[in-house]
Write a structure and sequence with these properties.
7 helices; Maltoporin, Chain A; globular; 5% helix; mainly beta; 44 strands
Length: 837
């Protein structure tokens, strides 16, 4: 992982794992400052909720410092995880990074990320606040950040739910009463020698007295596009035997070059007040808004002829995504007698909405049903009020609202005692109101639209299928750690967490009155018909067993504002709760002043939950157990560092999401798996002007039991887990030299990720094919003095264009012939200017 030459004595050295001992003979990734360095320096982290030297922390931990963030031009989630070998991501073609699914150490199945499936297995924190929402983390713009920490392996005792496989922490720079400071940075860039973008950032630290200061930060960013939405036509064959049923659609009104643009603005404010010698109060407020247009998917198999070629698609509906959030936090730190007290209270409010093309779904259903006994049925379903066939290019729209409230209190005994400990209390409530409209068709007949019998204000014109639910997740926990110095060099640490979690879902899912896909071909009913008289709204398309749970005093639960504000009625109203404990044991030995060896046994968990389908049972927590050996060493008078860990993880009762009954996504506790791996870093200062480092991670995973949801074998024992490559690594070299009265540098940063599969289900993975390996090379040259800096850079210098991930508009069983590759940003030339005051 990247490391830096210290600009100040306390500057942070950063780390990442490496893949194999053979690579250790090579040099390693680095980022450096302009002052010459004679040693690697000390790294201070707070991963264990106390400040300590990274080399003294007995866990596999990667840290990217503020200097590294600046020197590697890290601005968002995608760029910092590129230099974290233990972290894997899954990106959506619709949101361009607004939602990223995050995994660590290969703990992934490839089927999560939906609104009512499992919680994430990796927790993301902004300072003291967990910022992982149900469908993914916040993509925080990275500027004026002290460091990013990645804690690999189960962190269940200290960080609780959604830290099953690891935790990522973004630590901001805090206000400093000791002096005024300010600065700004400007960047201009050109992508693919075509579209231009910019980044503008600035901060100011203002002392208000000897004991108080305020820090203000702001940023604005425009990311140019490189995907072209080309003009194309598509023929929907209603009935091959009757060409009059065909409907031809055109996307001319949506065609656009450089289709996938993104604009982000944001600000952060923090106040720090020192109340005497013992207490500090720090309120913070952060806001960010991102507006994205288009799609980040490339039509990799050129299914539509007009979209053949690099970075092209042919989409037939408007596509956009808006993500707006703010976070407010309050941290109080102090001491009572010789006990340290920390309180952290936080509130997150997030709103997003978007629309995406869904025409592949309707096209492939139309194609499948254009012949045989059901020929023309699908086409005939979608008509206007006069019975005319419609443009059946569907859209999918989503409107999501999240809140997250958390409170934590920690009490720590003196750290200089032979026996010391920490006791904590945690409460968190997550709320997610999601409204998803599928199959949105302009001009759809009233009788086919959702809730058409109600007053006009309660109708959903053109909406064929609707998910509209409230989800609430609550976690309460007590946790603690105890450290005991067996000798002056041998320490035993014990950790435990007792948790009580609850998951609730309330709302509606199903089809409109005029369309009843509970009777699609292959179903027990064997036909497609409008809803029968007397059936509930949505018919059996609402997937209720026998309709019994719909009755209230013998009558159907009819639509009303009281029942559900933005849906016909309520047909999902369930909750589940559970409690359990996780533990951690760690033994560390300070063999010398510059070497630490440790052994760890630890557990992590992910809460259970409910399935919206009333016919499907709940799922329970799954657990990850970790057995780990590691070492942290310094050599050659603090000029060479070698850290490593080897581990075995056992994953039990794995929560797997899949398309269940009636094509509705559900979660089931499925198979078990094992993951073996190694994570290593080598950082080297061969001269005072040159820094080299190498980092990587190697993983070997497999199922230890069959994966067979609903009794159908999908992946046999021995199948590797998806998403994670066997090897991911990076290398960075930075050389410093004087140039015309300035300090100059040249830097090369190389990041590699091996090939991997995209889904645990072998059939689905085979449809997409293997995600190919990728290699990205970034080059920079710059000069600077005490006040100014200017840098020229080339990002993705080799113009790597292999897909980062595969995606589709609907299930592989339906849209298997049309897949998209999430496209990396092409070669980008840029210039940055920075001034400090």
């Amino acid at each position: 992982m990247p490391v830096v030459f210290p600009k100040r004595p306390q500057s942070i050295l950063t780390h990442t794992p490496i893949a194999s001992a053979v690579l250790l003979a090579l040099a390693s990734p680095a980022a450096m400052a302009q002052d010459q360095a004679t040693s690697l320096g000390e790294v201070i982290v707070t991963a264990q909720k106390r400040s300590e030297n990274l080399q003294d922390v007995p866990i596999s931990l990667e840290s990217i410092s503020d200097e590294s963030i600046e020197q590697l031009n890290i601005q968002n989630f995608k760029t910092y995880t590129q230099y974290l070998p233990s972290v894997q991501t899954q990106q959506s073609m619709q949101t361009g990074g607004g939602y990223n699914l995050v995994y660590m150490r290969g703990v992934a199945t490839g089927g999560d990320g939906q609104a009512i499936t499992s919680q994430p297995s990796v927790g993301t924190y902004l300072d003291e606040q967990p910022i992982t929402t149900i469908r993914g983390n916040l993509d925080v713009h990275v500027y004026d950040i002290a460091r990013v920490e990645a804690l690999a392996g189960p962190q269940g005792t200290l960080y609780g739910a959604s830290s099953q496989a690891g935790t990522i922490r973004i630590i901001t720079n805090k206000p400093d009463p000791s002096g005024f400071a300010a600065g700004y940075s400007l960047e201009g860039n050109l992508v693919d020698s075509d579209d231009a973008g910019y980044v503008a950032e600035g901060f100011v630290n203002i002392p208000m007295s000897d004991t108080a200061a305020i820090r203000l930060v702001g940023w604005a960013k425009h990311e140019p596009g490189w995907i072209d939405n080309v003009e194309a036509t598509r023929v929907y064959p209603g009935n091959l035997a009757d060409p009059d049923d065909d409907v031809t659609v055109n996307n001319a009104e949506f065609a656009e070059d450089n289709y996938n643009t993104s604009d982000t603005v944001g600000a952060r404010a923090a106040l720090q007040v020192n109340l005497g010698e013992n207490w500090t109060v720090t309120p913070t407020l952060m806001y960010q808004k991102s507006e994205m247009e288009g799609s980040w998917g490339d039509d990799v198999n050129d299914f539509i002829p007009e979209a053949a070629g690099k970075n092209k698609v042919a989409h037939f509906r408007d596509e956009f995504y808006n993500d707006e959030w703010y976070q407010a936090g309050l941290t109080i730190e102090g001491a009572i007698s010789n006990f340290d007290i920390v309180y952290s209270g936080n509130y997150l409010n997030r709103e997003d909405d978007g629309s995406t093309d869904y025409s592949d779904y309707s096209y492939f259903y139309d194609l499948a049903w254009s012949t045989g006994p059901y020929a023309g049925t699908f086409a005939n379903l979608f008509v206007d009020n006069d019975g005319n066939y419609l443009n059946r290019a569907h859209a999918y729209t989503a409107d999501d609202y999240y809140t997250k409230t958390s409170h934590e209190v920690r009490v720590s005994s003196p750290q200089d005692k032979r026996v010391r400990g920490l006791l904590g209390f945690f409460y968190q409530k997550q709320y997610h109101d999601f409204h998803e409209e599928f199959g949105v068709i302009d001009g759809l007949a009233d009788f086919m639209s959702m809730n058409f019998l109600e007053p006009e204000s309660q109708r959903f014109p053109g909406v064929v299928y609707l998910n509209s639910m409230d989800r609430t997740d609550i976690e309460e926990a007590i946790f603690g750690t105890v450290q005991f110095d067996i000798t002056d060099t041998l320490e035993l640490s014990l950790g435990a967490r007792y948790f009580d979690v609850e998951n609730k879902v309330h709302g509606f899912f199903g089809f409109g009155l005029g369309f009843n896909p509970g009777r699609v071909p292959g179903s027990s009913d064997g036909d497609i018909q409008p809803t029968e008289p007397g059936e509930p709204p949505g018919g059996s398309g609402t997937f209720l067993p026998g309709g019994a749970s719909w009755s209230r005093n013998g009558e159907w639960r009819c639509p009303s504002q009281e029942d559900r504000k933005d849906a016909p009625c309520v047909n999902a109203d369930r909750n589940v709760s559970e409690s359990d404990s996780v533990f951690r044991v760690n033994l560390s030995w300070k063999a010398t002043d510059t070497s630490l060896l440790y052994a760890t046994w630890s557990e992590g968990f992910r809460p259970g939950g409910i399935n919206r389908n009333p016919a499907v049972p709940d799922y329970v927590s799954d657990f990850l157990t970790n057995y780990e050996l590691g070492w942290k060493t310094r050599w050659a008078e603090d000029r060479l560092q070698f850290n490593a860990a080897v581990f075995l993880e056992e994953w039990d009762d794995i929560q797997v999401a899949f398309q269940g009954l009636n094509g509705i996504t559900q979660v089931e506790n499925g198979p078990e798996a094992e993951i073996m791996g190694t994570e290593m870093t080598l950082d080297w200062l061969p001269t005072d002007n040159l820094r080299l480092s190498l980092a990587g991670a190697y993983y070997d995973s497999e199922l230890t039991s069959d994966y067979a949801p609903l009794g159908e074998l999908k992946a046999p024992e021995g199948t590797p887990l998806p998403i994670t490559a066997e090897f991911k690594g990076n290398a960075i070299a930075r050389y410093m030299f004087p140039l015309g009265g300035f300090d100059a540098h040249v830097q090369g940063a190389l990041a590699y990720e091996g090939s991997r599969t995209s889904d645990l289900d072998i059939d689905d993975a085979n449809v997409f094919g293997e995600i190919p390996s990728n290699t990205f090379l970034d080059l920079t040259f710059g000069i600077e003095n005490d006040k100014y800096a200017i840098e020229l850079f080339v990002a993705n210098a080799t113009d790597e264009d292999t897909p980062l991930f595969f995606d589709a508009e609907c299930a592989n069983s339906v849209c298997g012939d049309q897949k998209y590759g999430v496209s990396p940003r092409p070669r980008t030339f840029g210039i940055r200017f920075k001034q400090d005051f």
